[in-house]
Amino acid sequence: MRDLPEEWDVVASKDHFQGRVIGVRTDTVRMPPHDDVADRDYVVHPGAVAVLALDDDERVLLLRQYRHPVRRLLWELPAGIRDVEDEPLVTTAARELAEEAGYAADTWHTLVDLMSSPGMTDERIRVFLARGLRRTEIDFERRHEEYDMPVEWVPLADAVERALMGMIHNSPAVAGILAAYAASVEGFALLRPADAPEE
User: Which of 14, 20, 90, 156 is deepest in the core (most CB within 10 A)?
Assistant: First the structure.
């Protein structure tokens, strides 16, 4: 069982809005089996990466960030948008880990790939597992939501409990925490390499 690429005929497309990061589009799609057409509105997004940083004591690095659309301070993984054209995703992830948390990693694997909300956006998120962590310095000015992001190290089992108890809501964080916990059972042997192609 696996998700498969499929593309139904788009007979018309209209862009309604383009912001700094996202856009809003309506596609008129020919629907099988009777060739009816229907409009589908969605958010166009460049995609993102997230990093589950796991230290030698099996603790997960989480940071807290204000998210205005949901009016909450959320515990999240270091993450960021795919904003450099043709940059390998693991390079984007390494930069985000350094900028947001001040860490570099010696070992990288692809942990899990997500389509964040496929009924309303084309956003794809790749979550990486980073291990062999060390402190690093990077020249990065934190502003706005990133200005005051406390960093906490949480035992992986405790992070799983918090996710299942509804205490952590950020989707890449929840997926990354649960995937890391599941992958740890096999000693992370089932994980794909950091440069695994997206399907």
Answer: 90
Secondary structure of residue 100 in the 3-state scheme: helix
Provide the β-strand partners of residue 64: 75
How far apart, in Å, are the Cα atoms of 102 and each of 16, 147, 162, 169, 172? 38, 14, 24, 23, 20
Q: With contact defined as beta carbons under 8 Å apart, do 53 and 76 qualify?
A: no
Q: Are 53 and 36 in contact (CB under 8 A)?
A: no
Reported as a single tens digit per residue, the pLDDT across 93-145 is 999 999 999 999 999 999 999 999 999 999 999 999 999 999 997 765 655 55
Greatest CA separation for the chain:
59
What is the set of active-site residues?
Answer: 146
- Give how far Cα 198 sits from Cα of 124, 133, 173, Å: 9, 25, 19
Q: What are phi and psi of 124, to 5 degrees?
A: -120, 140
pTM: 0.92
Tokens standing for residue 126: 């790749």
